[in-house]
From TrEMBL, chain A:
The lineage of its organism: Bacteria, Bacillati, Actinomycetota, Actinomycetes, Pseudonocardiales. It comes from the Bacteria. GO terms for cellular component: cytosol. This is Ring-1,2-phenylacetyl-CoA epoxidase subunit PaaA. GO terms for biological process: phenylacetate catabolic process. One of its GO terms (molecular function) is phenylacetyl-CoA 1,2-epoxidase activity. InterPro entries: Aromatic_CoA_ox/epox (IPR052703), Ferritin-like (IPR012347), Ferritin-like_SF (IPR009078), PaaA (IPR011881), PaaA_PaaC (IPR007814). It holds the Pfam family PaaA_PaaC. It comes from Pseudonocardia thermophila. SUPFAM superfamilies: Ferritin-like (SSF47240).
From TrEMBL, chain B:
It comes from Pseudonocardia thermophila. Residues 247-270 are annotated as: Disordered. It comes from the Bacteria. Coiled coil: none annotated. GO terms for biological process: phenylacetate catabolic process. InterPro entries: Aromatic_CoA_ox/epox, Ferritin-like, Ferritin-like_SF, PaaA_PaaC, PaaC. This is Ring-1,2-phenylacetyl-CoA epoxidase subunit PaaC. SUPFAM superfamilies: Ferritin-like (SSF47240). One of its GO terms (cellular component) is cytosol.
Length: 312, 292
Protein backbone atom coordinates (compact mmCIF):
# COMPACT_ATOMS: atom_id res chain seq x y z
CA UNK A 1 0.00 0.00 0.00
CA UNK A 2 2.76 2.44 0.86
CA UNK A 3 4.45 1.62 -2.44
CA UNK A 4 1.23 2.33 -4.30
CA UNK A 5 0.72 5.59 -2.43
CA UNK A 6 4.33 6.56 -3.13
CA UNK A 7 3.89 5.83 -6.82
CA UNK A 8 0.65 7.87 -6.91
CA UNK A 9 2.35 10.77 -5.12
CA UNK A 10 5.27 10.62 -7.53
CA UNK A 11 2.95 10.67 -10.56
CA UNK A 12 1.17 13.74 -9.19
CA UNK A 13 4.45 15.44 -8.27
CA UNK A 14 5.82 14.84 -11.77
CA UNK A 15 2.65 16.41 -13.26
CA UNK A 16 1.76 13.17 -15.00
CA UNK A 17 -1.69 11.71 -15.45
CA UNK A 18 -3.47 9.15 -13.30
CA UNK A 19 -5.29 6.68 -15.55
CA UNK A 20 -8.34 4.50 -14.73
CA UNK A 21 -6.36 1.34 -14.03
CA UNK A 22 -3.80 3.06 -11.78
CA UNK A 23 -4.09 2.76 -8.04
CA UNK A 24 -5.51 5.90 -6.42
CA UNK A 25 -6.48 6.88 -2.87
CA UNK A 26 -10.19 6.45 -2.12
CA UNK A 27 -10.52 10.12 -1.26
CA UNK A 28 -9.13 11.09 -4.66
CA UNK A 29 -11.56 8.75 -6.40
CA UNK A 30 -14.53 10.00 -4.36
CA UNK A 31 -13.63 13.65 -4.91
CA UNK A 32 -13.32 13.15 -8.64
CA UNK A 33 -16.57 11.20 -8.95
CA UNK A 34 -18.38 13.91 -7.02
CA UNK A 35 -16.86 16.70 -9.07
CA UNK A 36 -17.30 15.04 -12.48
CA UNK A 37 -20.87 14.00 -11.65
CA UNK A 38 -21.74 17.52 -10.55
CA UNK A 39 -20.27 18.81 -13.75
CA UNK A 40 -22.26 16.30 -15.82
CA UNK A 41 -25.46 17.12 -13.92
CA UNK A 42 -24.81 20.81 -14.58
CA UNK A 43 -24.66 20.20 -18.31
CA UNK A 44 -27.95 18.32 -18.21
CA UNK A 45 -29.85 20.72 -15.95
CA UNK A 46 -28.24 23.57 -17.91
CA UNK A 47 -30.18 22.46 -20.99
CA UNK A 48 -33.38 23.74 -19.39
CA UNK A 49 -32.83 27.49 -19.03
CA UNK A 50 -31.68 27.84 -22.62
CA UNK A 51 -34.05 25.17 -23.88
CA UNK A 52 -36.75 27.49 -22.57
CA UNK A 53 -36.18 29.67 -25.66
CA UNK A 54 -35.65 27.10 -28.42
CA UNK A 55 -39.31 27.12 -29.42
CA UNK A 56 -39.41 30.93 -29.48
CA UNK A 57 -36.07 31.76 -31.10
CA UNK A 58 -36.70 34.85 -33.23
CA UNK A 59 -34.90 33.76 -36.44
CA UNK A 60 -34.15 30.39 -37.99
CA UNK A 61 -30.41 31.02 -37.70
CA UNK A 62 -30.76 31.73 -33.96
CA UNK A 63 -32.95 28.70 -33.56
CA UNK A 64 -30.32 26.49 -35.20
CA UNK A 65 -27.50 28.00 -33.12
CA UNK A 66 -29.43 27.53 -29.89
CA UNK A 67 -30.47 23.97 -30.74
CA UNK A 68 -26.88 23.07 -31.59
CA UNK A 69 -25.68 24.57 -28.34
CA UNK A 70 -28.16 22.75 -26.16
CA UNK A 71 -27.36 19.58 -28.04
CA UNK A 72 -23.68 20.13 -27.25
CA UNK A 73 -24.60 20.31 -23.57
CA UNK A 74 -26.24 16.90 -23.78
CA UNK A 75 -23.07 15.68 -25.49
CA UNK A 76 -20.90 17.13 -22.73
CA UNK A 77 -23.08 15.38 -20.19
CA UNK A 78 -22.44 12.12 -22.03
CA UNK A 79 -18.64 12.53 -22.06
CA UNK A 80 -18.59 13.49 -18.42
CA UNK A 81 -20.75 10.61 -17.24
CA UNK A 82 -18.41 8.36 -19.23
CA UNK A 83 -15.41 9.91 -17.48
CA UNK A 84 -17.12 9.24 -14.12
CA UNK A 85 -17.75 5.65 -15.18
CA UNK A 86 -14.00 5.12 -15.63
CA UNK A 87 -13.81 5.62 -11.85
CA UNK A 88 -16.37 2.90 -11.18
CA UNK A 89 -19.47 5.10 -10.98
CA UNK A 90 -22.62 4.26 -12.93
CA UNK A 91 -24.57 6.81 -14.99
CA UNK A 92 -27.98 5.53 -13.91
CA UNK A 93 -26.96 5.68 -10.25
CA UNK A 94 -25.55 9.16 -10.60
CA UNK A 95 -28.80 10.24 -12.24
CA UNK A 96 -30.75 8.82 -9.30
CA UNK A 97 -28.54 10.80 -6.91
CA UNK A 98 -29.26 13.97 -8.88
CA UNK A 99 -33.00 13.31 -8.91
CA UNK A 100 -33.00 12.56 -5.19
CA UNK A 101 -31.25 15.89 -4.57
CA UNK A 102 -28.21 14.10 -3.15
CA UNK A 103 -25.78 15.44 -5.73
CA UNK A 104 -25.62 19.03 -6.82
CA UNK A 105 -25.35 20.88 -10.08
CA UNK A 106 -24.17 24.41 -10.77
CA UNK A 107 -26.37 26.89 -8.90
CA UNK A 108 -26.41 29.27 -11.84
CA UNK A 109 -29.07 27.14 -13.51
CA UNK A 110 -31.46 27.89 -10.68
CA UNK A 111 -32.02 31.32 -12.16
CA UNK A 112 -34.77 31.84 -14.76
CA UNK A 113 -34.31 32.89 -18.41
CA UNK A 114 -36.78 35.72 -18.88
CA UNK A 115 -35.86 37.20 -22.26
CA UNK A 116 -34.00 36.20 -25.40
CA UNK A 117 -31.10 38.38 -24.27
CA UNK A 118 -30.58 35.78 -21.55
CA UNK A 119 -29.52 33.32 -24.24
CA UNK A 120 -26.72 35.68 -25.21
CA UNK A 121 -25.81 36.63 -21.67
CA UNK A 122 -25.62 33.00 -20.61
CA UNK A 123 -23.24 32.40 -23.50
CA UNK A 124 -21.14 35.42 -22.67
CA UNK A 125 -21.06 35.45 -18.87
CA UNK A 126 -22.06 31.98 -17.72
CA UNK A 127 -20.08 30.09 -20.36
CA UNK A 128 -17.30 32.64 -19.91
CA UNK A 129 -17.15 31.89 -16.18
CA UNK A 130 -17.35 28.17 -16.87
CA UNK A 131 -14.39 28.46 -19.25
CA UNK A 132 -12.30 30.21 -16.59
CA UNK A 133 -13.14 27.37 -14.24
CA UNK A 134 -12.64 24.64 -16.78
CA UNK A 135 -9.57 25.53 -18.80
CA UNK A 136 -7.28 24.61 -15.87
CA UNK A 137 -9.11 21.28 -15.66
CA UNK A 138 -7.63 20.35 -19.04
CA UNK A 139 -4.43 19.87 -16.99
CA UNK A 140 -6.20 18.00 -14.20
CA UNK A 141 -4.25 15.01 -12.88
CA UNK A 142 -6.95 12.51 -13.83
CA UNK A 143 -6.48 11.61 -17.52
CA UNK A 144 -10.04 10.88 -18.73
CA UNK A 145 -11.41 14.03 -17.08
CA UNK A 146 -8.62 16.19 -18.47
CA UNK A 147 -9.15 14.84 -21.98
CA UNK A 148 -12.93 15.31 -21.81
CA UNK A 149 -12.35 18.88 -20.69
CA UNK A 150 -10.19 19.70 -23.71
CA UNK A 151 -13.05 19.00 -26.08
CA UNK A 152 -15.63 20.61 -23.81
CA UNK A 153 -13.60 23.80 -23.44
CA UNK A 154 -13.25 24.16 -27.20
CA UNK A 155 -17.01 23.94 -27.61
CA UNK A 156 -17.66 26.25 -24.65
CA UNK A 157 -15.43 28.91 -26.21
CA UNK A 158 -17.45 28.63 -29.39
CA UNK A 159 -20.67 29.04 -27.37
CA UNK A 160 -19.26 32.05 -25.60
CA UNK A 161 -18.43 33.77 -28.88
CA UNK A 162 -21.88 32.98 -30.23
CA UNK A 163 -23.51 34.44 -27.12
CA UNK A 164 -21.46 37.59 -27.38
CA UNK A 165 -22.25 37.86 -31.09
CA UNK A 166 -26.00 37.68 -30.33
CA UNK A 167 -25.64 40.50 -27.79
CA UNK A 168 -23.65 42.57 -30.31
CA UNK A 169 -26.44 42.11 -32.85
CA UNK A 170 -29.11 43.06 -30.29
CA UNK A 171 -27.16 46.15 -29.22
CA UNK A 172 -27.26 47.29 -32.86
CA UNK A 173 -31.01 46.70 -33.00
CA UNK A 174 -33.87 48.65 -31.42
CA UNK A 175 -33.87 50.61 -28.13
CA UNK A 176 -36.06 47.90 -26.72
CA UNK A 177 -33.46 45.27 -27.58
CA UNK A 178 -30.65 47.30 -26.00
CA UNK A 179 -32.72 47.65 -22.83
CA UNK A 180 -33.34 43.91 -22.91
CA UNK A 181 -29.60 43.22 -23.00
CA UNK A 182 -28.87 45.60 -20.12
CA UNK A 183 -31.68 44.16 -18.01
CA UNK A 184 -30.37 40.67 -18.61
CA UNK A 185 -26.80 41.65 -17.68
CA UNK A 186 -28.16 43.19 -14.47
CA UNK A 187 -29.73 39.87 -13.49
CA UNK A 188 -26.85 37.56 -14.47
CA UNK A 189 -23.73 39.47 -13.41
CA UNK A 190 -23.73 38.62 -9.72
CA UNK A 191 -24.81 34.99 -10.10
CA UNK A 192 -22.00 34.61 -12.66
CA UNK A 193 -19.47 35.78 -10.07
CA UNK A 194 -20.91 33.24 -7.63
CA UNK A 195 -20.11 30.45 -10.09
CA UNK A 196 -16.53 30.41 -8.80
CA UNK A 197 -17.74 29.21 -5.43
CA UNK A 198 -17.27 30.61 -1.94
CA UNK A 199 -14.30 32.88 -1.13
CA UNK A 200 -11.01 31.08 -0.47
CA UNK A 201 -11.34 31.81 3.24
CA UNK A 202 -14.52 29.70 3.25
CA UNK A 203 -13.73 26.92 0.74
CA UNK A 204 -13.04 23.71 2.67
CA UNK A 205 -12.21 21.40 -0.26
CA UNK A 206 -9.89 23.64 -2.21
CA UNK A 207 -6.63 22.80 -0.46
CA UNK A 208 -6.84 19.04 -0.84
CA UNK A 209 -8.00 19.34 -4.47
CA UNK A 210 -5.06 21.60 -5.24
CA UNK A 211 -2.62 19.19 -3.61
CA UNK A 212 -4.03 16.42 -5.81
CA UNK A 213 -3.78 18.72 -8.85
CA UNK A 214 -7.46 18.23 -9.57
CA UNK A 215 -7.78 21.95 -9.07
CA UNK A 216 -5.07 24.37 -10.15
CA UNK A 217 -6.24 27.80 -8.97
CA UNK A 218 -8.27 29.04 -6.04
CA UNK A 219 -11.85 30.32 -6.37
CA UNK A 220 -10.86 33.93 -5.79
CA UNK A 221 -8.03 33.78 -8.33
CA UNK A 222 -10.36 32.49 -11.00
CA UNK A 223 -13.08 35.00 -10.11
CA UNK A 224 -10.59 37.86 -10.46
CA UNK A 225 -9.42 36.54 -13.80
CA UNK A 226 -13.04 36.46 -14.99
CA UNK A 227 -13.75 40.03 -13.87
CA UNK A 228 -10.57 41.31 -15.52
CA UNK A 229 -11.47 39.54 -18.74
CA UNK A 230 -15.12 40.65 -18.77
CA UNK A 231 -14.93 44.39 -18.02
CA UNK A 232 -13.40 45.35 -21.40
CA UNK A 233 -15.89 43.08 -23.17
CA UNK A 234 -18.76 44.89 -21.43
CA UNK A 235 -17.33 48.22 -22.55
CA UNK A 236 -17.04 47.04 -26.14
CA UNK A 237 -20.62 45.86 -25.98
CA UNK A 238 -21.90 49.10 -24.47
CA UNK A 239 -23.47 47.66 -21.33
CA UNK A 240 -22.89 48.62 -17.71
CA UNK A 241 -21.99 45.93 -15.21
CA UNK A 242 -24.23 46.50 -12.19
CA UNK A 243 -21.53 47.18 -9.59
CA UNK A 244 -20.78 50.76 -8.47
CA UNK A 245 -17.53 49.56 -6.83
CA UNK A 246 -16.12 48.13 -10.02
CA UNK A 247 -12.96 50.06 -10.98
CA UNK A 248 -9.40 49.48 -12.17
CA UNK A 249 -6.85 49.28 -9.39
CA UNK A 250 -3.46 50.18 -10.86
CA UNK A 251 -1.59 49.02 -7.76
CA UNK A 252 -3.00 45.51 -7.92
CA UNK A 253 -3.13 45.45 -11.70
CA UNK A 254 -6.69 44.12 -11.42
CA UNK A 255 -10.24 45.38 -11.25
CA UNK A 256 -11.65 45.83 -7.76
CA UNK A 257 -15.26 44.79 -7.42
CA UNK A 258 -18.04 44.94 -4.83
CA UNK A 259 -19.03 42.44 -2.18
CA UNK A 260 -20.93 39.38 -3.40
CA UNK A 261 -24.18 38.65 -1.57
CA UNK A 262 -23.12 35.35 -0.07
CA UNK A 263 -26.48 34.91 1.65
CA UNK A 264 -28.11 34.62 -1.77
CA UNK A 265 -25.42 32.16 -2.86
CA UNK A 266 -26.04 30.01 0.21
CA UNK A 267 -29.81 30.17 -0.18
CA UNK A 268 -29.64 28.98 -3.81
CA UNK A 269 -27.15 26.28 -2.85
CA UNK A 270 -29.51 25.13 -0.09
CA UNK A 271 -32.35 24.77 -2.58
CA UNK A 272 -34.12 28.10 -2.12
CA UNK A 273 -33.22 29.72 -5.46
CA UNK A 274 -35.83 30.94 -7.94
CA UNK A 275 -35.91 27.69 -9.96
CA UNK A 276 -34.39 24.86 -7.88
CA UNK A 277 -37.66 22.98 -7.47
CA UNK A 278 -38.69 23.61 -11.06
CA UNK A 279 -35.42 22.34 -12.55
CA UNK A 280 -35.41 19.13 -10.57
CA UNK A 281 -39.12 18.53 -11.17
CA UNK A 282 -38.56 18.95 -14.92
CA UNK A 283 -35.67 16.49 -14.87
CA UNK A 284 -37.69 13.99 -12.81
CA UNK A 285 -40.67 14.28 -15.11
CA UNK A 286 -38.56 13.65 -18.23
CA UNK A 287 -36.88 10.70 -16.51
CA UNK A 288 -40.16 9.17 -15.36
CA UNK A 289 -41.88 9.76 -18.70
CA UNK A 290 -39.00 7.96 -20.37
CA UNK A 291 -38.96 4.95 -18.05
CA UNK A 292 -41.16 2.81 -20.32
CA UNK A 293 -38.91 3.61 -23.27
CA UNK A 294 -35.73 2.60 -21.42
CA UNK A 295 -37.45 -0.56 -20.18
CA UNK A 296 -38.49 -1.42 -23.72
CA UNK A 297 -34.94 -0.93 -25.01
CA UNK A 298 -33.59 -3.17 -22.26
CA UNK A 299 -36.23 -5.84 -22.88
CA UNK A 300 -35.56 -5.75 -26.62
CA UNK A 301 -31.80 -6.02 -26.14
CA UNK A 302 -32.23 -8.94 -23.78
CA UNK A 303 -34.60 -10.82 -26.10
CA UNK A 304 -32.25 -10.43 -29.01
CA UNK A 305 -29.17 -11.36 -27.02
CA UNK A 306 -30.98 -14.59 -26.06
CA UNK A 307 -31.94 -15.28 -29.68
CA UNK A 308 -28.31 -14.88 -30.70
CA UNK A 309 -27.21 -17.30 -27.97
CA UNK A 310 -29.71 -19.87 -29.15
CA UNK A 311 -28.54 -19.42 -32.72
CA UNK A 312 -24.87 -19.81 -31.73
CA UNK B 1 -30.09 -10.67 -42.01
CA UNK B 2 -32.28 -7.78 -43.12
CA UNK B 3 -31.44 -4.14 -43.05
CA UNK B 4 -33.43 -3.63 -39.88
CA UNK B 5 -31.66 -6.43 -38.02
CA UNK B 6 -28.46 -4.61 -38.74
CA UNK B 7 -29.97 -1.35 -37.62
CA UNK B 8 -31.14 -2.71 -34.34
CA UNK B 9 -27.59 -3.75 -33.52
CA UNK B 10 -26.07 -0.51 -34.68
CA UNK B 11 -24.15 1.58 -32.21
CA UNK B 12 -23.92 5.32 -32.27
CA UNK B 13 -20.64 5.59 -34.14
CA UNK B 14 -22.11 7.36 -37.15
CA UNK B 15 -20.02 10.26 -38.32
CA UNK B 16 -22.95 12.59 -38.85
CA UNK B 17 -23.75 12.68 -35.16
CA UNK B 18 -20.81 14.92 -34.43
CA UNK B 19 -21.62 17.69 -32.01
CA UNK B 20 -21.90 21.31 -33.01
CA UNK B 21 -23.47 20.94 -36.44
CA UNK B 22 -22.20 23.73 -38.69
CA UNK B 23 -24.50 26.67 -39.12
CA UNK B 24 -23.57 27.91 -42.55
CA UNK B 25 -24.88 30.98 -44.26
CA UNK B 26 -27.50 30.04 -46.79
CA UNK B 27 -27.72 33.22 -48.85
CA UNK B 28 -25.31 32.26 -51.61
CA UNK B 29 -26.77 28.86 -52.36
CA UNK B 30 -30.26 29.77 -53.43
CA UNK B 31 -29.92 32.26 -56.27
CA UNK B 32 -29.76 29.94 -59.29
CA UNK B 33 -32.05 31.00 -62.17
CA UNK B 34 -35.43 29.30 -62.59
CA UNK B 35 -35.19 26.46 -65.15
CA UNK B 36 -36.58 27.20 -68.62
CA UNK B 37 -40.32 26.80 -69.00
CA UNK B 38 -40.97 26.82 -65.24
CA UNK B 39 -43.20 29.38 -63.54
CA UNK B 40 -41.27 31.07 -60.72
CA UNK B 41 -44.38 31.34 -58.57
CA UNK B 42 -45.00 27.60 -58.89
CA UNK B 43 -41.41 26.84 -57.94
CA UNK B 44 -41.63 29.21 -54.96
CA UNK B 45 -44.82 27.50 -53.82
CA UNK B 46 -43.17 24.10 -54.11
CA UNK B 47 -40.18 25.27 -52.08
CA UNK B 48 -42.63 26.45 -49.43
CA UNK B 49 -44.27 23.01 -49.34
CA UNK B 50 -41.01 21.14 -48.79
CA UNK B 51 -39.59 23.89 -46.59
CA UNK B 52 -42.64 24.09 -44.36
CA UNK B 53 -42.70 20.30 -43.98
CA UNK B 54 -39.15 20.49 -42.66
CA UNK B 55 -39.63 23.58 -40.51
CA UNK B 56 -42.83 22.44 -38.86
CA UNK B 57 -41.70 18.86 -38.26
CA UNK B 58 -38.30 20.10 -37.07
CA UNK B 59 -39.98 22.44 -34.63
CA UNK B 60 -42.13 19.62 -33.25
CA UNK B 61 -39.05 17.46 -32.74
CA UNK B 62 -37.23 20.32 -31.03
CA UNK B 63 -39.98 20.24 -28.38
CA UNK B 64 -38.18 17.15 -27.07
CA UNK B 65 -35.08 19.04 -25.99
CA UNK B 66 -34.55 18.43 -22.25
CA UNK B 67 -37.52 16.03 -22.26
CA UNK B 68 -36.09 12.94 -23.95
CA UNK B 69 -36.03 9.51 -22.28
CA UNK B 70 -32.22 9.19 -22.39
CA UNK B 71 -29.23 11.42 -23.11
CA UNK B 72 -28.46 9.67 -26.38
CA UNK B 73 -31.99 10.53 -27.48
CA UNK B 74 -31.47 14.17 -26.50
CA UNK B 75 -28.54 14.31 -28.88
CA UNK B 76 -30.24 12.37 -31.66
CA UNK B 77 -33.53 14.28 -31.57
CA UNK B 78 -31.84 17.68 -31.40
CA UNK B 79 -29.70 16.66 -34.35
CA UNK B 80 -32.74 15.57 -36.32
CA UNK B 81 -34.47 18.87 -35.61
CA UNK B 82 -31.33 20.72 -36.66
CA UNK B 83 -31.08 18.84 -39.93
CA UNK B 84 -34.70 19.62 -40.77
CA UNK B 85 -34.40 23.28 -39.83
CA UNK B 86 -31.29 23.45 -42.00
CA UNK B 87 -33.26 22.06 -44.95
CA UNK B 88 -36.09 24.50 -44.21
CA UNK B 89 -33.70 27.45 -44.26
CA UNK B 90 -32.46 26.62 -47.75
CA UNK B 91 -35.94 25.99 -49.11
CA UNK B 92 -37.56 29.04 -47.54
CA UNK B 93 -34.66 31.19 -48.68
CA UNK B 94 -35.13 29.86 -52.20
CA UNK B 95 -38.88 30.58 -52.00
CA UNK B 96 -38.15 34.12 -50.80
CA UNK B 97 -35.64 34.64 -53.59
CA UNK B 98 -38.33 33.60 -56.07
CA UNK B 99 -40.70 36.22 -54.71
CA UNK B 100 -42.65 34.48 -51.92
CA UNK B 101 -41.40 36.91 -49.26
CA UNK B 102 -38.52 39.05 -48.06
CA UNK B 103 -36.39 36.27 -46.59
CA UNK B 104 -36.49 32.96 -44.72
CA UNK B 105 -37.40 34.65 -41.44
CA UNK B 106 -40.31 36.64 -42.80
CA UNK B 107 -41.68 33.40 -44.22
CA UNK B 108 -41.15 31.45 -41.02
CA UNK B 109 -42.27 34.06 -38.51
CA UNK B 110 -44.69 36.44 -40.22
CA UNK B 111 -47.02 34.11 -42.10
CA UNK B 112 -50.33 33.08 -40.62
CA UNK B 113 -51.21 29.42 -40.57
CA UNK B 114 -53.31 29.49 -43.76
CA UNK B 115 -50.17 30.47 -45.69
CA UNK B 116 -48.23 27.45 -44.45
CA UNK B 117 -48.04 24.67 -47.04
CA UNK B 118 -46.89 21.69 -44.96
CA UNK B 119 -48.69 18.36 -44.75
CA UNK B 120 -50.66 17.79 -41.55
CA UNK B 121 -48.46 14.88 -40.42
CA UNK B 122 -45.59 17.32 -39.84
CA UNK B 123 -47.58 19.52 -37.48
CA UNK B 124 -49.17 16.85 -35.28
CA UNK B 125 -48.40 17.25 -31.62
CA UNK B 126 -47.05 14.12 -29.96
CA UNK B 127 -48.19 15.19 -26.50
CA UNK B 128 -44.78 14.29 -25.10
CA UNK B 129 -45.27 10.63 -25.97
CA UNK B 130 -42.03 9.18 -27.34
CA UNK B 131 -43.83 6.42 -29.23
CA UNK B 132 -45.98 8.98 -30.96
CA UNK B 133 -42.91 11.05 -31.87
CA UNK B 134 -41.27 7.94 -33.32
CA UNK B 135 -44.35 6.94 -35.32
CA UNK B 136 -44.56 10.44 -36.80
CA UNK B 137 -40.84 10.49 -37.59
CA UNK B 138 -40.90 7.02 -39.14
CA UNK B 139 -43.66 7.91 -41.59
CA UNK B 140 -42.45 11.44 -42.24
CA UNK B 141 -38.84 10.49 -42.87
CA UNK B 142 -39.65 7.38 -44.97
CA UNK B 143 -41.81 9.58 -47.17
CA UNK B 144 -39.44 12.55 -47.29
CA UNK B 145 -36.52 10.29 -48.13
CA UNK B 146 -38.48 8.90 -51.10
CA UNK B 147 -39.24 12.46 -52.25
CA UNK B 148 -35.66 13.67 -51.88
CA UNK B 149 -34.28 10.66 -53.73
CA UNK B 150 -36.48 11.63 -56.68
CA UNK B 151 -35.41 15.25 -56.42
CA UNK B 152 -31.73 14.33 -56.91
CA UNK B 153 -32.45 14.57 -60.62
CA UNK B 154 -34.56 17.74 -60.48
CA UNK B 155 -34.00 20.30 -63.22
CA UNK B 156 -33.86 22.94 -60.51
CA UNK B 157 -30.26 22.95 -59.25
CA UNK B 158 -31.25 24.24 -55.82
CA UNK B 159 -33.77 21.44 -55.26
CA UNK B 160 -31.20 18.93 -56.48
CA UNK B 161 -28.62 20.33 -54.04
CA UNK B 162 -31.07 20.34 -51.14
CA UNK B 163 -31.92 16.74 -51.98
CA UNK B 164 -28.31 15.70 -52.15
CA UNK B 165 -27.63 17.02 -48.66
CA UNK B 166 -31.02 15.95 -47.33
CA UNK B 167 -30.96 12.33 -48.49
CA UNK B 168 -28.11 11.46 -46.15
CA UNK B 169 -29.71 13.25 -43.24
CA UNK B 170 -33.22 11.91 -43.70
CA UNK B 171 -31.97 8.36 -44.28
CA UNK B 172 -30.49 8.59 -40.82
CA UNK B 173 -33.72 9.96 -39.36
CA UNK B 174 -35.62 7.05 -40.86
CA UNK B 175 -33.14 4.51 -39.55
CA UNK B 176 -33.26 6.08 -36.10
CA UNK B 177 -37.07 5.92 -36.11
CA UNK B 178 -36.96 2.35 -37.43
CA UNK B 179 -34.61 1.25 -34.65
CA UNK B 180 -36.94 2.65 -32.03
CA UNK B 181 -40.02 1.22 -33.74
CA UNK B 182 -38.37 -2.19 -33.39
CA UNK B 183 -37.41 -1.71 -29.77
CA UNK B 184 -40.77 -0.32 -28.72
CA UNK B 185 -42.81 -2.73 -30.81
CA UNK B 186 -40.87 -5.77 -29.66
CA UNK B 187 -39.92 -4.50 -26.20
CA UNK B 188 -42.32 -4.78 -23.28
CA UNK B 189 -46.06 -5.36 -23.32
CA UNK B 190 -46.59 -1.70 -22.48
CA UNK B 191 -44.25 -0.40 -25.15
CA UNK B 192 -45.85 -2.66 -27.74
CA UNK B 193 -49.30 -1.34 -26.87
CA UNK B 194 -48.14 2.27 -26.92
CA UNK B 195 -46.25 1.97 -30.20
CA UNK B 196 -49.22 0.34 -31.90
CA UNK B 197 -51.53 3.06 -30.55
CA UNK B 198 -49.12 5.73 -31.81
CA UNK B 199 -49.08 4.25 -35.30
CA UNK B 200 -52.86 4.06 -35.26
CA UNK B 201 -53.09 7.72 -34.26
CA UNK B 202 -50.90 9.06 -37.07
CA UNK B 203 -52.16 6.66 -39.72
CA UNK B 204 -55.09 8.79 -40.97
CA UNK B 205 -52.56 11.49 -41.92
CA UNK B 206 -50.54 9.24 -44.23
CA UNK B 207 -52.81 9.35 -47.28
CA UNK B 208 -52.28 13.10 -47.64
CA UNK B 209 -48.57 12.45 -48.23
CA UNK B 210 -49.31 10.82 -51.59
CA UNK B 211 -51.71 13.43 -52.99
CA UNK B 212 -50.56 15.54 -55.90
CA UNK B 213 -51.42 19.23 -55.79
CA UNK B 214 -51.94 21.31 -58.94
CA UNK B 215 -48.61 23.05 -58.49
CA UNK B 216 -46.84 19.72 -58.12
CA UNK B 217 -48.55 18.36 -61.20
CA UNK B 218 -47.20 21.20 -63.33
CA UNK B 219 -43.72 20.93 -61.85
CA UNK B 220 -43.61 17.15 -62.23
CA UNK B 221 -44.36 17.63 -65.92
CA UNK B 222 -41.50 20.14 -66.11
CA UNK B 223 -39.04 17.72 -64.53
CA UNK B 224 -38.65 19.84 -61.41
CA UNK B 225 -40.79 18.25 -58.68
CA UNK B 226 -40.98 14.70 -57.32
CA UNK B 227 -44.23 12.84 -57.74
CA UNK B 228 -45.61 12.13 -54.27
CA UNK B 229 -47.91 9.42 -55.62
CA UNK B 230 -44.82 7.39 -56.49
CA UNK B 231 -43.52 7.50 -52.92
CA UNK B 232 -46.29 5.25 -51.61
CA UNK B 233 -44.49 2.11 -52.79
CA UNK B 234 -41.27 3.17 -51.03
CA UNK B 235 -43.02 3.91 -47.75
CA UNK B 236 -44.97 0.66 -47.95
CA UNK B 237 -41.76 -1.27 -48.56
CA UNK B 238 -40.26 0.14 -45.35
CA UNK B 239 -43.38 -0.66 -43.36
CA UNK B 240 -43.79 -4.14 -44.84
CA UNK B 241 -40.29 -5.04 -43.79
CA UNK B 242 -40.26 -3.28 -40.45
CA UNK B 243 -43.67 -3.77 -38.89
CA UNK B 244 -43.69 -7.61 -38.79
CA UNK B 245 -40.22 -7.59 -37.22
CA UNK B 246 -41.46 -5.08 -34.69
CA UNK B 247 -44.51 -7.35 -34.06
CA UNK B 248 -46.73 -4.41 -35.05
CA UNK B 249 -49.76 -4.40 -37.30
CA UNK B 250 -50.27 -2.07 -40.22
CA UNK B 251 -53.15 0.15 -39.06
CA UNK B 252 -56.47 -0.10 -40.82
CA UNK B 253 -57.93 3.36 -40.44
CA UNK B 254 -59.54 5.64 -43.00
CA UNK B 255 -57.70 8.76 -44.12
CA UNK B 256 -58.53 12.02 -42.47
CA UNK B 257 -61.07 13.98 -44.44
CA UNK B 258 -60.36 17.16 -46.37
CA UNK B 259 -62.29 20.41 -46.55
CA UNK B 260 -63.70 20.39 -50.11
CA UNK B 261 -60.52 18.64 -51.24
CA UNK B 262 -58.28 21.11 -49.47
CA UNK B 263 -55.65 20.11 -46.89
CA UNK B 264 -52.17 21.17 -45.77
CA UNK B 265 -50.77 21.87 -49.23
CA UNK B 266 -53.65 24.31 -49.76
CA UNK B 267 -53.24 25.92 -46.32
CA UNK B 268 -56.06 24.05 -44.55
CA UNK B 269 -54.44 22.66 -41.41
CA UNK B 270 -55.31 20.91 -38.17
CA UNK B 271 -56.19 23.01 -35.15
CA UNK B 272 -52.74 22.19 -33.77
CA UNK B 273 -50.69 24.32 -36.15
CA UNK B 274 -52.07 27.63 -34.89
CA UNK B 275 -50.93 26.82 -31.35
CA UNK B 276 -47.51 25.83 -32.55
CA UNK B 277 -47.10 29.06 -34.51
CA UNK B 278 -48.39 31.13 -31.60
CA UNK B 279 -45.36 29.96 -29.66
CA UNK B 280 -42.85 29.88 -32.50
CA UNK B 281 -43.64 33.34 -33.85
CA UNK B 282 -44.32 35.17 -30.59
CA UNK B 283 -40.93 36.80 -30.01
CA UNK B 284 -40.29 37.64 -33.66
CA UNK B 285 -43.69 39.33 -33.92
CA UNK B 286 -43.27 41.24 -30.65
CA UNK B 287 -40.29 43.12 -32.08
CA UNK B 288 -40.91 44.40 -35.58
CA UNK B 289 -37.75 45.93 -37.01
CA UNK B 290 -35.50 44.17 -34.52
CA UNK B 291 -32.16 42.61 -35.46
CA UNK B 292 -31.17 39.30 -33.99
Amino acid sequence: MDDLQAQFDATIAADQRIEPRDWMPEGYRRTLIRQIAQHAHSEIIGMQPEGNWILRAPTLRRKAILLAKVQDEAGHGLYLYSAAETLGADRAELTELLLAGKQKYSSIFNYPTLSYADVGVIGWLVDGAAICNQVPLCRCSYGPYARAMIRICKEESFHQRQGYELLMAMMQGTDEQRAMVQESVNRWWWPSLMMFGPPDSDSPNTQQSMAWKIKRHSNDELRQRFVDMTVPQAEALGVTLPDPDLRWNPERGHYDFGEIDWSEFKAVLAGAGPCNAQRLAHRRRAHENGAWVREAAAAYAEKHARKQEVAA
Amino acid sequence: MTVFDALSDARDEHGQWAFGTGIEDVATEITAPVPDGVDAADLAEYCLMLGDDALVCGHRISEWVSNAPELEEEVALANTALDLIGQARLLLSRAAHLGAGADEDELAFQRNEDRFRNVALAELTDDGDFGHAIARLLLFSSWRLALLQRLLGSRDPVLAAVAEKGVKEVAYHRDYAARWTLRLGDGTEQSHRRMQAALDTVWPYVEELYRVSDVEERLIAAGVAANPAETRADVDAVLDELLPQATLTRPDRPPRGTVRGRAGRQGVHTEQLGHMLAVMQSLARQHPGAKW
